[in-house]
Known about the structure:
There is one protein chain. The protein has 542 residues and is of the alpha/beta class. The chain has 3 domains: 2-179, 3-Layer(aba) Sandwich (Alpha-D-Glucose-1,6-Bisphosphate, Chain A, domain 3), CATH 3.40.120; 184-406, 3-Layer(aba) Sandwich (Alpha-D-Glucose-1,6-Bisphosphate, Chain A, domain 3); 408-541, Alpha-D-phosphohexomutase, C-terminal domain (TATA-Binding Protein, 2-Layer Sandwich), CATH 3.30.310.50. It has 18 helices and 27 strands. Helix 2 (32-42) packs across helix 3 (62-76) and helix 7 packs across helix 13. The longest helix is centred in the first third of the chain and has 15 residues, at 62-76. Alpha-D-glucose-1-phosphate-6-vanadate binds at residues 17-18, 112-113, 276, 280-281, 320, 343-345, 362, 364, 366, 485-487, 495.
Amino acid sequence: xxxxxxxxxxxxxxxxxxxLRKKVPVFQQKNYAENFIQSIFDSLEGFKGETLxxxxxxxxxxxxxxxxxxxxxxxxGFGRVLVGRGGILSTPAASNVIRKYKxxxxxxxxxxxNPGGPTEDFGIKYNxxxxxxxxxxxxxxxxxxxxxxxxxxxxDVANINLDHEGTQEVEGMTVTVIDPVxxxxxxxxxxxxxxxxxxxxxxxxxxxxxxxxxxxxxYAKEIIENRLGAPKGSVLNxxxxxxxxxHHPDPNLVHARALYETMMAPxxxxxxxxxxxxxxxNLIIGKGIFVTPSDSLALLAANAHLAPGxxxxxxxxxxxxxxxxxxxxxxxxxxxxxxxxxxxxxxxGNLLDEGMATICGEESAGTGSSHVREKDxxxxxxxxxNILAVRKKSVLDIVRQHWATYGRNYxxxxxYEEVDSDAANGxxxxxxxxxxxxxxxxxxxxxxxxxxDFAYHDPVDKSVSKNQGIRILFEGGSRxxxxxxxxxxxxxxxxxxxxxxxxDATRHDIETQAALADLIAVADEIxxxxxxxxxxxxxxxx
Length: 542
Ligand code: VG1
Ligand code: CO
């Protein structure tokens, strides 16, 4: 039986950089998840009888919302749901399933790298038929709908069994539970030279992959250990847990500290990597060297032709605006296009669909390609392994050689988390008011060349996205960028991105924060970070 239930709007269901993210107790309010899911369906057209993909990163509340989404999809007229066994699908795997089975779209349940558990974070995101996050036009429509919603539709049936593969029926709609790993692993086998990587492992190359008790565990076990033959035990923390073992599944130097220390030890393995809660981010650490995500993007682009899936070369590279310019130098040398987009993977979709870009990346540890429409943590790890298997050099040597060829972009991001929202907004407003007066002003040895609030003009659909981050460019090419996070769930998070280009190879060994010290001081001087936020240091430095 299908029921129509009366409801009232909450008013706070605005999708951020990557879907709607809130604390679990917020999602547990009466009709809260139902309102959002119905608002998604109400914002779409033409899905009668079509396929919807549903899956999530296995965090606390995943199963409950998957049950709701299936019952509501049936009541709203979808013809088929594909759902990962146990409700599990990593974000890139969900993107692949949507594309492979020509689904109308997908619902991905995750709060990515944020902690999980009864009082931690949850999230719902809608992906369109190309497998990527819904563009702003759709997320704006969803938000508008959440403010007006008065009913939702749901099938009044018992819970669906998610733990056995096979097909069931819910009010005329079929629900097929699929293995979450199979299709994804097959895609990776098409892109990379598994034989070469297998040989490298057989020759004693040591890899360690930390799945952080999150969704990539089953994928990494199957691919790295079973198919590529890395010794058992190479994949750590491979059991997805609803609370990620109480940790932040955030693959950075703070939350993946143990991996970092392993890789800096004298007897370190050859290659260390980690992924986040939903499997779309990556951390790459070689023996004795952490590779910044911006450098990793540039390196992967420069070497991608060594993997079978990219042997024909790249059409172009796209990076988010705050990501360092290291990839720009590679694009210039390859004679291909480089695109600068706002933060958030949804902005890469059009460039990938049109064949303008092949590889994309963000400074926040996201890298991916045209194989899916999400960033893809394991993909980045496998591309690195493929490159290492072909070049037969250490990560350190490869990175150094890259810097020697292209110069080094010193880069760091300073996050001020859980700052008072009014203080953070005040800081940004004051900065905006200052922008016009900044060019020509000097701060010590640094002179401002240009200052603006980044606006993106999508070359494909011609849409314009304004207020995407304040950037201050200095003469000589250094810059600082300020923006507020769109994924946080409490207070505001101010992100300050700092970059300096160093062409001189004799100066490639400076400690990063030291190399950026003068810019860090000027960022504070211009924005008044300390005085406005009351913080004397960032919460996280990456
Ligand atoms: C952050 C990152 C951004 C990324 C987004 C989603 O957004 O900065 O680069 O696309 O998270 O990634 P924000 O608005 O907090 O800066 V994930 O792995 O959380 O889906
Ligand atoms: Co993520």
